[in-house]
Amino acid sequence: MRVLIDTNVGLDIILERQPFVEAATTLFALVESGKIQGYIAATTVTNIFYIVRKLQGRDVALQAIAKLMLGLNLCAINSQVIQRALALNLHDFEDGVQLACAFLDNLDALVTRDASDFQGVDFTVLSTVDFIAQFTSGD
């Protein structure tokens, strides 16, 4: 299974945000074990760097990005992605960019902490907790 991991889930694990870090850690363990293929939008890298740098400094941000990139694939941002994101007209444009990446790269789902941000879209969007529950129910 190939899933796009929303920026907020990456931040949950990097910043150890409670109570979300446990589910994010489980999701990333699935990626590291090769049970799923994890993707992030290229913009996620810069967004996470910016946020972590503001909160914890440049060196911590660089280390976080290096660690985050281990085992993850990048979805490129190009004109087609931006046009699709604009057409989606989601409240949060960044969410639209991530969803457009997942759709255009033919991924199976988008995993986020805030599934309600994607209501009404014609794509599988699951919360981190719901994804883990569905994915591990067959084990």
Structural description of this entry:
One of its GO terms (molecular function) is DNA binding. This is DNA-binding protein. Residues 2-115 form the PIN domain. Keywords: DNA-binding. Pfam families: PIN_3 (PF13470). Helix content is 56%, strand content 14%. With 139 residues, it is an alpha/beta fold. The protein has one domain (2-132): 3-Layer(aba) Sandwich (Rossmann fold), CATH 3.40.50. It has a 5-stranded parallel sheet with strand order 3-2-1-4-5. Helix 1 runs parallel beside helix 3 and helix 2 crosses helix 7 (128-136). It starts with a strand and ends with a helix.
Q: What's this model, at a glance?
A:
By secondary structure, the protein is an alpha/beta fold. Helices cover 56% and strands 14% of the residues.
The helix/strand order is EHHEHHEHHEEH
Highest-level CATH class: Alpha Beta
Unreliable residue stretches: none
Query: What is the tally of beta strands?
Result: 5
Question: How would the global form be characterised?
Answer: globular
Q: Strands across the major sheet, in which order?
A: 3-2-1-4-5
Please state the structural category. alpha/beta
If you average the pLDDT, what whole number results?
95
β-strand percent reads 5-15%
- The N- to C-terminal Cα distance equals 14 Å
Rg over alpha carbons: 14 Å
Protein name: DNA-binding protein
GO molecular function: DNA binding
Pfam family, one: PIN_3
Keywords: DNA-binding
